[in-house]
Write a structure and sequence with these properties.
By secondary structure, the chain is an alpha/beta fold. It is 42% helix and 15% strand. The longest helix is centred in the middle third of the chain and has 52 residues, at 477-528.
Length: 801
């Protein structure tokens, strides 16, 4: 028998024989030729329909001679396994109502022939009559049924079913299959030891009520009563169930306790992709191993530091190992243990490789929003306009600084006036000419700033045409003409600025000439004047200076302005990119850029004790001066001359820290909420499961890291199951959930034998041979594995972990 599932196992667990005539099928002549002497007739029918595993399940009786006769034919054609079984009639009482009889097909473990030999005597008396304890209904009560199972002493799979009304009117294959699937009302595993010791009561009513009928399509079998016309349905066909399991009782058990292992009709459980490894070849201490690999999920388990991570890195040629010392360590370990990994996965056949560090790094990057070139970058097609938001914020802060400066400069002027006391005197007029100080200055700051910004705009336009030439080509001639018009308009505006600057330059030349001449004349006149005349001139100069300061204060008073601390971002701060059930969100690292954010920026630039005064000074009148504002700046204090420029620079520096942040969410979480690190783990594997554009094998080392047990069970396992339908998975894990509950298709176990030499065993979870049972190896190797294995063998987690 193969160690792993390579093709579906098609089953028919509901075939009748002549034995049923004694119980429920009296008078059905077609059953007369359904006995051990006509096994070949049945085999031809099974062969024609590709049945791999079957059971004769007569009504409330068991023909052991027929069973053993058919058992001997295992291996003929498609038939790999014959299991013993009975279709029991069980009466169930519900809330004082009359008993309802349901049919429960019991399939027994075939690994104990001695106990199988005694089934008939337990079910029927010496006259071949069923030992019913509900004679009125010709059935076993629930307690009676439990006693029969207890006395038989074999593990059993129970499949309850009931006839669907109007089934006979359906003739097409799909309808018959759907009807047969809708008949199933329970599936359950009965552990012989537990039921024998009465550690577990068999509550059929509860099992039927809790069976997730709509979610689990399952066909028991053909219910064939005429082997010559197998499957015996009017119309000639039904849709059989196909199971992803080895053709064994243990395989059946694993399948009925995991709905993903069951499909109806012709089907495939694995991808037909050629990007997969058929086997893993290696040798250890001279012993060669050729380990078959499933096209689905292959889990590698074993003791710590036994070489699991080394193995997957050697398979990929260590191309994902960034540390040369680690490669040297692998080489040394292989030399010490005599290990040679002979299988090599080409880069083109690899979908993705996630070692422990890369998974952790990816999840951290997803949670922090960093990693702009990460694997999921392709999903962020639309981005938040960070530059526009930063420019808008800087303009807002500039306006706030201008408002604060306008009032502080006025206050500075008043302080300067307070320092000048001028005594009004009536002095005689100087008989000589007096030339006053010439204070007019020409400022080039504004016009130069405008020119600089226009030049920057022109450069941006030129670069835009070069950087996005393909888009301009797509937009056509109209876009090219619009770009040219914009360049011409900027050129005209720049010429106007240059022309106007020439006016400033001429005025500046005149001003400096007048100032220079006046200064020279003052020096000449000063030599000719008497002390009295100089006193008169000084007094006049003082009056002129104070008059100038008053004029400046009046002008500054007129320039005062307020700026309310109100800010509205000009564009969306979150841009969603829906992709299936996921939402890829491009947002700001700052979160909301609202008033609270703006106040937080001010808190970084100004000391908190003065912050409220400063914010009030922006919005309304204030007595703050430039000196006081400079003293309130955090860190190194700015000079009086450059105070406001430095404040602007500090505010801009905080704004410049705003960048794009990426996050992944879904509709249930919403775009505003923040997924937890663990939730990112579930989203990460969900995304990988949905990826079908790129073929290849997915290799991962310990996917359980940083994800809670609940999240693993409720989300991540489902993602891996979906992934396995599209690609081969090679996984290292120490978590039993990722082996047993995930229902991996192949388990590779690394362990040291009694001589300390590494040994390798493998197979599907249900695989067993003379040397080992895979489930036992899992229970012994993985921490907590024994409990998980025990709880796994329950129906759909009804007694879940």
């Amino acid at each position: 028998m193969e160690r792993i599932v390579t093709k579906p196992t098609r089953i028919d667990l509901h075939i009748h024989s002549a034995a049923s005539v004694v119980t429920k099928d009296k008078g059905k002549k077609e059953l007369s030729d359904c006995d051990k002497d006509h096994v070949n007739v049945l085999l031809r029918g099974l062969e024609a329909h590709g049945i791999n595993m079957c059971a004769i399940t007569d009504h409330d009786c068991f023909d052991k001679d027929l069973y053993f006769a058919l058992k001997e034919r295992e291996g003929d054609g498609y038939l790999n396994k014959v299991l013993p079984g009975i279709e029991f009639s069980v009466s169930i009482r519900a809330d004082g109502k009359k008993p309802t009889v349901v049919h429960i097909v019991a399939i027994f473990d075939d690994r104990h022939p001695d106990l199988i030999d005694g089934i008939a005597e337990v079910v029927c008396d010496e006259n071949g009559k069923p030992r019913y304890d509900d004679l009125n209904n010709g059935a076993f009560t629930e307690d009676g049924f439990a006693k029969v199972l207890r006395d038989i002493g074999l593990n059993a799979v129970l499949i309850g079913h009931e006839k669907s009304a109007g089934q006979e009117a359906k003739r097409d294959v799909s309808s018959l299959g759907a009807n047969c699937a809708s008949e199933v009302i329970l599936t359950e595993f009965v552990d012989a030891v537990e039921i024998l010791n009465k550690r577990r009561e068999l509550d059929i009513k509860r099992l039927i009520e809790t069976y997730p009928k709509d979610a689990v399509p399952f066909v028991v079998g053909s219910d064939c009563h005429d082997w010559a016309t197998y499957p015996g349905k009017e119309g000639g066909e039904i849709s059989f169930s196909s199971l992803k399991c080895l053709p064994t009782f243990e395989g059946l058990l694993m399948a009925i306790t995991d709905p993903s292992r069951i499909k109806v009709g012709d089907c495939s459980f694995f991808s037909a992709s050629s990007s997969k490894l058929d086997s893993l070849e290696l040798s250890i201490d001279g012993k060669c191993f050729d380990i078959p690999l499933s096209p689905g999920i292959n889990a590698i388990i074993g003791d710590n530091s036994i070489g699991k991570s080394m193995m997957i890195h050697r398979i990929t040629g260590c191309r994902h190992v960034g540390d040369s010392k680690l490669v040297d360590g692998y080489e040394a370990y292989c030399a010490k243990e005599g290990i040679s990994v002979d299988t090599l996965l080409p880069d083109a056949a690899e979908f993705k490789f996630d070692d422990q560090d890369s998974v952790r790094k990816t999840l951290e990057e997803l949670h922090s929003g960093q990693g702009q070139d990460d694997y999921f970058g392709k999903y962020f097609q639309s981005h938040v306009d960070v530059d526009s938001i930063k420019d808008s914020l800087k303009r807002f802060f500039d306006e706030c600084v201008v408002a604060l400066e306008s009032k502080a400069r006025f206050n500075d002027a008043l302080r300067r006036l307070d320092k000048h006391e001028v005594v009004l005197r009536d002095l005689p007029k100087s008989e000589m000419l007096t030339i006053s100080q010439y204070s007019k200055k020409i400022s080039f700051k504004d016009i130069d700033d405008l020119g600089s910004k226009l030049l920057s705009c022109r450069s941006d336009l030129v670069n835009a045409r070069a950087d996005y030439s393909r888009l301009f080509k797509e937009m056509g001639l109209e876009a090219a003409e619009a770009h040219a018009d914009a360049m011409e308009a900027l050129a005209r505006l720049l010429k106007l600025v240059e022309k106007h600057r020439l006016v400033y330059e001429r005025d500046d030349v005149k001003t400096r000439a007048v100032k220079g001449t006046a200064s020279e004349e003052r020096r000449v006149l000063s030599k000719r004047k008497t002390d009295e005349q100089k006193t008169i001139d000084d007094y006049s100069a003082t009056l002129d200076d104070v008059s100038g300061k008053i004029a400046d204060a009046v002008l500054l008073a007129a320039k005062r302005r307020d700026r309310k601390l109100e800010y509205a971002v000009p564009v969306d701060i979150r841009v969603p990119n829906p992709m299936g059930k996921f939402i890829f969100v491009s947002e700001l690292t700052s979160g909301k850029t609202d008033v609270d954010y703006c106040k937080a920026v001010f808190e970084e630039v100004f000391n908190k004790p003065k912050l409220s005064l400063l914010l009030n000074g922006i919005q309304s009148e204030t007595e703050l001066t430039t000196e006081e504002i400079a003293a309130a700046v955090t860190g190194e204090k700015p000079s009086m001359a450059t105070c406001y420029d430095q404040i602007r620079n500090k505010l801009h520096a905080v704004v410049d820290r705003v960048t794009e942040r990426r996050k992944i969410t879904n509709k249930s979480i919403g775009i505003d909420a923040e997924p937890s690190p663990g939730l990112y783990g579930t989203l990460y594997f969900d995304l990988l499961a949905e990826e079908d554009a790129k073929p290849g094998i997915y290799i991962i080392d310990q996917p359980e890291d940083q994800i809670s047990q609940v999240a693993i069970k409720e989300h991540v396992l489902g993602a891996f199951k979906r992934m396995s339908a599209n690609r081969q998975v090679l996984m290292i894990t120490h978590n039993p959930l990722f082996v047993v509950n995930l229902d991996v298709d192949n388990v590779i176990v690394l362990a040291r034998d009694k001589n300390g030499i590494i040994d390798v065993k493998s197979g599907a979870l249900e695989y067993e041979c003379d040397d080992y049972k895979v489930l036992d190896l899992v229970a012994k190797t993985v921490e907590g594995g024994a409990d998980v294995v025990k709880k796994r063998l329950k129906r759909y987690g009804s007694e879940g972990i």
